[in-house]
Amino acid sequence: MNNKMMSKQRTLIAGIVLTMLYFISASALAIELQDVTFSMASGDRTDITLTFDEVPPEPTGYAIAEPARISLDLVGVSSGLASKYHALGAGNARNMTVLETQDRTRIIIALSELVGYSTQVRGRTLQVSVGRDLDATARTTSGAAAMPGNQPRSNVDDVDFKRGSEGEGRVIITLSEPNIAVDLDQVGGRIVLTMPDTTLTPSLEQQLDVTDFATPIDRIEVYQQGDQAVIEVVPNGEFDYLAYQSDQAFILEVKPVVKDVDTSSVPGEDFLYKGDKMSLNFQNIEIRAILQIVADFANLNLVASDTVSGAITLRLKEVPWDQALDIVLKTKGLDKRVQGNVLLVAPAAELADQERVQLENQQEIAELAPLRTELIKVKYANASDIVGLFSSQGSGSNGGNNGGNSGEGSAGIVSDRGSILVDDRTNAIIVTETPSRIAQLRTLLTQLDIPVRQVMIEARIVKASDSFKREAGIRWGTAGNISWGDSPNGIQYGGSMETLGGAPAENLIVDLGTGSGKTGGIAFGLMNNDLLLDLELQLFESEGMGETVSRPTIITSDKSPATVNSGSQIPYQSDTGGGATSTAFINATVGLTVTPQITADDRIILELDVTNNSRGDPTPGGPPAIDIESIQTKVIVSDGETVVLGGLYQTRTDLIQLKTPVLGNLPLVGRLFRNSARTKDKDELLIFITPKIIRESGDRVR
Questions:
Q1: Are the C-beta atoms of residues 141 and 119 closer than 8 Å to each other?
Q2: DSSP class of 386
Q3: 239 touches 257 (CB < 8 A)
Q4: Beta carbons of 533 and 556 less than 8 angstroms apart
Q5: CA Rg, the chain, in Å?
Q6: Half-sphere exposure at residue 528, Cβ-oriented, CA atoms within 13 angstroms
Q7: Coil, strand or helix: which one is 390?
Q8: pTM flag (> 0.85)
Q9: Partners of 535 in the beta sheet?
């Protein structure tokens, strides 16, 4: 019995609620559009007259350039017209479409090209004028508004300037009320903002010099001109500007235009918005309504959170729809997500919380996913090295599962539940993880397990020598005796003691012949019974040229060091102590040690150590001397390019004279008492390096 009574009560309440909703909706749409007429005026202007059964509300709307059309919304108005489509003649305004929704009627006027329009409420009629001589943004007036004496004067409360993060200049105008009309025009390179029937605060009439802010704006001129407030912005260079209004703040942004910027490689880098352009002009409109207008324009489905509320006053002219949407969202602390053709709008904090909860749920699902074991073979890299890249310190939960070769748990790749092992024999990785993490590991391994590029380095070590020697020497001597008549006494003379008495074998007084041999000479002598005089002039000259070319070539992998040597080991006896000796060896080799690194643009960085060692002069009782020539350097070279690392040029000139003291210094005669030798040696060492990247397996070393 009680259940039946409760059911009847619920039915009665539902009926009452439905009845109330019917009357509320009927009262909300109490105004009806009854008739539409149009007429052509001068200057290609079309006047459209809409007739209602009561005084209509002031329309709100926007204009778009492509396709050119004007859209007006009449809130609380229903359509009583028999047809939705109405032709408007052969002027710029081609046709008009009337669409009725739950709480409003939308009027869409199709244009041949975008021109200005204006609206005016006159009693029970609304006149819409479309023409070139009208302002491009919608302007709404009423019959009461035509009487300025009935309305208080509007004021400009403040004019401020700020520099944006991207170098743009922002002129911020604070209005006393949001519905003040602002006419924006560009005259003579200046941006002029005019506010009719608006008074400036006397302290604001000034000229602001903002050159030091490094923006496209040089100065701002604020002054009163009759009954209208005027603000002129004087820019410099090429610029672009954007004007919009948020409640009582009218903002003009002037941005610099950068010339000769190639944006083909990164499309959209300078300007992020690509939507079709639209114009919006609303006074104190609901946020949900403006979002619906933008969504309809962009052909998107709209989902707005319950917490999206509030009103906004804005005036945007010819801006991309996605930029207009961002301006509205940022003004009210909102954010958006686009999923396919659905636009989701909510407060930024609310969207962040939703995404955080979603990520936490995904993480919980991943932790409960079943594990699977797979064997992944590594082709080119070392499996232990690959696992070492994934390993992290301090993960104790995986320490018992990974084995001795895998190290600790892997950060980001292997979870606490999984494990990773290395089979060195087959160079494979054994992974126990969830399917998603295994797929992630395979993707990463595909990028890491690639063949290492190889480089062929060819070196040419050229050593050239040039020697010249010229020597002139002299040898002469005399022997004989001096006697006095028939006296048995006399004096015997010669070049040395051995020449006295008997037949002298050699009687040289000056022996300064050429020590390197002789390649030419002349000798003559004078003899009689008491005198022997002989003289020999010796000449020597030698000239030699030599060239030694060493060409070590080596192939190595990227970032791997390689060494090549060629030469001999010279043995020598070394003392080991206790009187014993042993044979030791010292290297006299030509060598090349190199570590190449291939850059992303196919250039090669080389760390080089080039040596050219050879046997030097012998040393008595010790190891032989080694002449060392080496270069250690680091260079960057293009593929196939030859670079000269450096050169060593040595010149040695010697002038040696052997002479008899005192006598060798005498002029002219001193030439008989000296030997002259001149030596000039030149040595030059050059090292050439040519690296080549081996791109195919068919490349050969030549």
A1: yes
A2: H
A3: yes
A4: no
A5: 52
A6: 4
A7: helix
A8: no
A9: 476, 524
